[in-house]
Amino acid sequence: MREQSGYRLKRGFDIMKRYQRTINEILMMEKPESFVYFSDPETYEILYISDETFISEELRREQYRGEKCYEILQGRLEPCPFCTNHLLSREHYYIWTYHNSHLNTDYILKDKLVDFDGHIVRMEIATALKSHEAVLKALSESLEGQNMLMNCIQPMLHETDLYVTQRRILDNICPFFGAEWGTVQRFGEHQILTQWGRRESGKWRPGRIPSAFVREYGELFNSYTQILITDTEAMKDSDPENYEFLKQEGVTSLCSTPVFTGSELAGMITLGNFSKNQANITLLFTLAFYLSSLMQREELYRKKMRLQYYDALTGSLNLEGFRRESGRLFSESAPQEYSLWYCDIKNFKYINDLFGFHTGNRILKYWASCLKDSCREDEAFCRISDDNFAFLWRLDEQDRLRERFNGLADRLASFGPFEEKNYQVELISGVYIPETPCGMDIDEMLNRANMARKSIVSPRGSRILFFTEELRKKALAGIEMEAEMRSALDKEEFVLYLQPQIKLTDVSGQKAHRAEALVRWMRNGRIYAMPDDFIGLFEKNGMIAELDLYIYERICILINRFKTCGLTSVCIAVNVSRHTMMQPDFVETYLAIKKRYRIEDDELELEFTESIAVEELELMQKVLKQLKKAGFICAMDDFGTGYSSLNVLQILPLDILKLDKGFLACEGEDRRRQIVVKSVLQMAKQLDMLTIVEGVENEEQLHLLQKVGCDYLQGFLVSPPLSEDEYRSFVKEELHGGESEIRQI
């Protein structure tokens, strides 16, 4: 769209400022045989008459003020029985003819309600008709004006395309007013400029107007003003500078009517070089009113569409908009030519909790801008919900797709506000490549991409996983397993195992004072499923809280069995899931069971994974304080697998820190590894925390820990998970020196 030069804009603004006219001033410019008067529709008092000599040569202005219109104009003592006040509106003229016997003249009358000095008043334009031919001509002109107006308005009632409407308006008003050219503009975010006329007729056309000038125009006009120059030659002496400008531009006459939506200037109707029907020029006000309604309707439609198809925070497509856009793309190219990605930001809730929702929203906007920059014209993306996004990329080799994704992940990782905090934003994404032929809709494809995303198990870094049929079979098996969980709990198919924890200074003697409770799903005397197969499913369906409670109570029973048979001084650690911790009665329930079985404080330990601190830091701090007050020993498990700040250890009242085996497997020189592990262990010691390193599987790792120092070891080097009987056998000699047999129960 062409934008006007600064000089033309400034010159045009000056012209508009000089030649704006109110509707009342324009009406008073009616033909010589006409006069205009205004009266109060309630009191009938005359407020103004443009030319009182039409009524009487002797009448002067001071003589009619406050007089009744029916007295002055009709010579009556009471309101006229044919008064049209009740028929008038602000939108349309009421046109009629009448022989005024008091003035002995035939008139064609155009009546309307208008704003006059801040009040709604009756306006009547009276045109004297000297002959029958004059009557017919006046009626014809009025009828033509009304027909023209209706031809413009009628399509607006049904048309939703503003460009089409603007074109129809110009097709009607330009010929009616004999204009050589015309424009209708819509300002704002979605500017539309529609033009009419021969290219050679005149040079000057209003082009695209910058928003700053639109604001100035809006301050200049109101909905009852109009720019009107009926003859530029009349400006030659009074306004030579603007006269020369308009003459050079080929403008002989000009009329611009503003279109307002509320108090905002929304558009402009402009006619150039018009030559007839000037008496009907005020019809453009009515046209502007209807065009304003259409613009408002279109804007509401746009807002509705944005709400329906776009995400309010990021401005990107929402899921509904993505469905529509993917349908369009698939109509142009086969689905098999695309890869569908379902992606989310790792630990986003933790980011919100740690850095605030404002920062979280900034990340989402930044991520959306990264995707927007990455997507080509024939690709699309959307925000599904929260931190979940989906995108369609053109299909390529998997390595190239990975490379493209990693480039995006690197860009997100460089999110400015986190660089100073040494925190990296990371992604996980599932990818589905449609099969040939593809009979699925976009929702089914998204489900498969999401299935792949949920199958990603990765403690660190951005990761992607491509959907495979084997992955789907595994997911279906998980669904079947999920269906059996309730009955498995009822049948007590979940069996406890204990993995010993040995004090580092007692490795040779292997005194197993401590153990971690683990669980196996047993069926018909054999292991049916390992924890990795079902714990995730329990967490998804909420049954993990029941399993946690089931294990916790059975550990309390087991501790009592151990004590009954002489096996004392053993502390058993029990895992607590995020879902369990969030139960409103969690602390009360666990404390009641502990008291019921008379468990001592040093016989039981509750382990919380690092991921809980990442996701629910504030709640975890509150719960741990309650547990500590109730006498529980509390530990953080899997430290080092996630992204919790070291400062978290200072915030949370923990007794034990369990280091993940990842600390032992970190890459780099042995010296560097020693420094990292030693630093964490020393920090924990300074915070009065007991330290346990899990996943110790070989002598090399043992020697490392002997150098840097820790309290306890856990892993296959010490012992695999043991059944209750196996654990008793494992510890009886170490705890009792072989002096007494542990009674079997």
TrEMBL record:
It comes from the Bacteria. PROSITE patterns: EAL, GGDEF. SUPFAM superfamilies: EAL domain-like, GAF domain-like, Nucleotide cyclase. Residues 478-735 form the EAL domain. Residues 336-469 form the GGDEF domain. GO terms for molecular function: cyclic-guanylate-specific phosphodiesterase activity. This is EAL domain-containing protein. Gene3D superfamilies: 3.30.450.40, 3.30.70.270, EAL domain (3.20.20.450). It comes from Clostridium symbiosum (Bacteroides symbiosus). The lineage of its organism: Bacteria, Bacillati, Bacillota, Clostridia, Lachnospirales. InterPro entries: Cyclic-di-GMP_PDE-like, EAL_dom, EAL_sf, GAF-like_dom_sf, GGDEF_dom, Nucleotide_cyclase, Rev_trsase/Diguanyl_cyclase. It holds the Pfam family GGDEF.
